[in-house]
Amino acid sequence: MTAVHGAAAEPVLPVPGADDRPAAPARLVAALVAAQFGAYLAVLTPVIVTLAIRVAQVAPDTRAASLGQVLSVGAVLALVANPLFGALSDRTTSRFGRRRPWLLGGMVVGLAGLLLVAVGGTVPLLTLGWAVAQLGVNATLAALTAIIPDQIPDRQRGRVSGLVGMMTSVAMVGGAFVAQAVAGHALLMMAVPGLVGLLCVGWLVLVLRDAPADRAALAPYGLRTFLRSFWVNPLRHRDFGWNWLGRFMVYVGLASLTSYQTYYLVDRLGFSTEQAAGKVFLSTLVMTAATVVGSILGGTLSDRSGRRKPYVVFSAAVTGLALLVVALVDSLPLFLCAVALFGFGQGLYMAVDVALAAAVLPDPRESAKDMGVLNIANALPQSLVPIVAPALPALGAGDGPGGNYSALFVTGAVCGLLGAFAVQLVRSVR
Q1: Residue 368 — very low, low, confident or very high, per pLDDT cuts 50/70/90?
Q2: In this structure, what CATH number is given to the domain that contains residue 131?
Q3: pLDDT tens-digit series, residues 8-38
Q4: Considering the domain boundaries, does residue 8 fall inside one?
Q5: Which partner from 126, 143, 181, 314 sits 20 to 30 angstroms from 52, CA to CA?
């Protein structure tokens, strides 16, 4: 059984200086990367493809509104679940360790939720299933994110962060392939990504050396402590606060393209809705390939130089330039070129994002909780951008048809650059 207790008074897993810890073994890094891929395959495949199909099957007359309902409930729970389960993971005294019970248990619960989505015959059942899936997978992701500060020495974090970060994009492509391969089979569309995720995370659980929290050093965990898990004082921990703000602004820029490229292809470039679906898949492939290149290159160079902040600035400049190009182009080839540039900049940012975050955590004893708070900064823009973006059409109305997208992408570029500026105010990381 998993035992969960209060905050540790002393570090259970001391995190010595970067030169004091041996390099993480290759099998751990490989399993960590695979687990990241599997978890995101399980949770992103429904978001990208299969959840919309299930909603259309269950409620064809109200599919748009019903899909919004299902996704919004899941998004809110994802925001709550990450820091909550991160805090619980930090306090787990199970003999299986702090992270492993949440890694494996979260994926089992997530798979159960996906299966409910597959067999549910009403929108409330789909909503319930997706809520369970989000809670489960985010419990896994909370523990998964903490493994980098727990287990990876600083001199390796750029490369590992890059490999882990690019798995989000790889999982999106993998999810699209899975959805196409099992099209028409509702159970398989949900079960296959969940099972792959469970197997990948299971591999990490087998190779991970994970010590439990010290029961004797734990204080009670109540409502007040739970509410504190969503807050890190930015005045006491300024580097953490600046990094949170920088991450939030950069992800606003990233979400401005990923959230609206389908409508852009229809309204600006003139494709039909059916054609746009194929073009989005093509752009996702291009973006993923470029993200992989940027992640590997940025992570390797960052570790060799021992510097993180220059790569954040350069990545923001690259993605900002790409968004400006998207705002101006009127042809698919130029759009794909801009998407490739965008993906490369995104990969550079992901290569140092987690490494930089791990270096500014207020307390290694609460690494999962604090990484969960940081994860709000990249999850929140994915909900806020679709809400705020409809206010931009008036700003671009003078540009003619599709001018609103120019305003959206320029705003995204500016937000990304502001995020890079915020990261420059972090003092404890070069």
Answers
A1: low
A2: 1.20.1250.20
A3: 333 334 444 444 778 888 899 999 999 999 9
A4: no
A5: 143
State pTM to two decimals: 0.70
Residue 239 sits at the vertex; the CA angle it makes with 238 and 241, to the nearest 5 degrees, is 60
Q: Please tell me the total count of domains within the chain.
A: 2
Tell me, what's the pLDDT at 277? 63
**Sequence-separated (6 or more) residues with CB below 8 Å from residue 104:** 140, 201, 202, 205
Question: Is 173 found in the same domain as 317?
Answer: no
Q: Report how far residue 388's alpha carbon sits from residue 57's, in angstroms, rounded to the nearest whole number.
A: 29
Contact 173, 283 (CB under 8 A): no
Between the two ends of the chain, the Cα-to-Cα distance in Å is 42
Which structural domain range is residue 361 located in? 232-430
Distance CA 29, CA 385 (A): 33
- Measured CA to CA, the distance from residue 37 to residue 223 in angstroms comes to 33
| DSSP 8-class letter at 47 | I
Q: What is the mean pLDDT of residues 119-123?
A: 90
Q: Is residue 12 part of a domain?
A: no
Contact partners, residue 228, CB within 8 Å, separation at least 6: none
Residue with tokens 């899941």: 74
Residue 101 has what pLDDT?
92
User: 81-107 burial, b if ≥16 CB within 10 A, otherwise e?
Assistant: bbbbbbbbbbbbbbebbbbbbbbbbbb
